[in-house]
Amino acid sequence: MNSSTVSEQKQPAAHTPRNFTLVLVICFILLGLCVIASLALGSRVTSFRELMDGLFHPDVQSFGANVVRKRISRTVFSLMCGAALGVSGALMQSVTRNPIADPSILGVNTGAALFVVCGIAFLNISSASQYIWLALAGAALTAVFVFGIGSMGRGGATPIKLVLAGAATSAALSSLVTAIMIPRSYVMDKFRFWQVGSVGSGSWDNISTFLPFLIAGMLIAVLTAPALNALALGDDVATGLGVKTGFLRFISAFAGVVLCGATTALAGPIGFIGLLATHVIRLILGPDLRFVIPMSAIAGAIILTVADVIGRLLGSPGELEVGVVTAFIGAPILILLAMRSKVRSL
Questions:
Q1: What broad class describes the main subcellular location of this protein (predicted)?
Q2: CA dist 115 → 55, 122, 134, 185, 208 (Å)
Q3: How far apart are CA 192 and CA 222, in angstroms?
Q4: DSSP character string of 184-213
């Protein structure tokens, strides 16, 4: 299925949501406020003057201005990771037709973390580009394994079976990560942030390494969104509309794995962003993935950046890793969603 075929599919939702423009404006305002907060707040709160000096006056070398400059790469990295996880969650929910699918819930990011830890411990890898390729392999294999386990038995891959398979797989893989790291202090010291996830590793080198994977995953997600709308009507209807359902699931899942795996390789297994972002956008704009996918990117960027700022404020003078904050917020929401009767399918 090429891009022209995808773009020609009939859409279940043919019109732009009436409140889309308003939501888009509000999201961009919130995004701007999040960026300002990320640059200004932390263990060292900067003044407005220091913020302006750090952004627009490179000749000013005050301590506050330098703090702002150091936070720029972290903020950009946080926005990119949040966008990637938001879109990855939207894709996984659509492909599995599971409204509570998320890279963390399905164990995908834990599989990515395991492969990278194995590479560090046994292959002596040390560069971000190597981390990403190992993370992609681990994420892909874990996704296939979880979906295969969840598809066994009567009823196929139901939402509850996938969640249970993902939770069990994630627990097992987390134990393996711990078993590999404990006797190897150099691995634990260097990558202990993976236990919870952190955007503190944000640097321009990591951003440049991450960027091609982010662009590729986002592009595939946007191009497949119309066909995923057709898939939401059921395989038979989608096939009648000319959608190659098998290839569509493969390429969409591939994009989700790329986004999740690359993020995990550089930031660790940050959970619940895809779940939170996608549900908020669906609640406001409806199910049309032509709008859900790009808006989930913005919502994911906002949520992760806010969580990072909260972690820095709560953990001052150190910081509370962003993975702890997102888990604290996301776990109760997951429980509420799992209790709803509508969780059976999208």
A1: membrane
A2: 38, 10, 6, 18, 22
A3: 34
A4: -HHHHHHHGGGGT--STT--HHHHHHHHHH
Q: Angle at CA 283, nearest 5°, toward 278 and 285?
A: 90
Residues 6+ apart with CB under 8 A from 2: none
Domain assignment present for residue 223? The answer is yes
Mean pLDDT calculated for residue range 242-246 = 83
Segments forming the whole domain that contains residue 9: 3-97+198-344
Distance CA 130, CA 124 (A): 10
pLDDT of residue 29: 96
Number of domains in the chain: 1
In this structure, is residue 170 part of a structural domain?
A: no
- State the maximum Cα–Cα separation within the chain, in Å, rounded to a whole number: 67
**Distance separating alpha carbons of residues 218 and 193, to the nearest angstrom:** 26
Whichever domain contains 7, its CATH number is 1.10.3470.10
| 149 found inside a domain | no
Asked if 200 and 74 count as a contact pair (C-beta separation under 8 A), the reply is yes
Among 196-205, 229-238, 243-252, 278-287, which is the least confidently predicted range? 196-205
Q: Is residue 317 reached through a cis peptide bond, with omega within 30 degrees of 0 on the bond before it?
A: yes
Contact 86, 305 (CB under 8 A): no
| CA distances for 70 relative to 44, 198, 307, angstroms | 12, 16, 18
| The model's pTM | 0.84
Q: Is 38 exposed, middle or buried (0-12, 13-18, 19+ CB in 10 A)?
A: buried
* Residue 184, phi then psi, degrees to nearest 5: -125, 90
In a domain, 237, yes or no: yes
Distance CA 188, CA 191 (A): 5
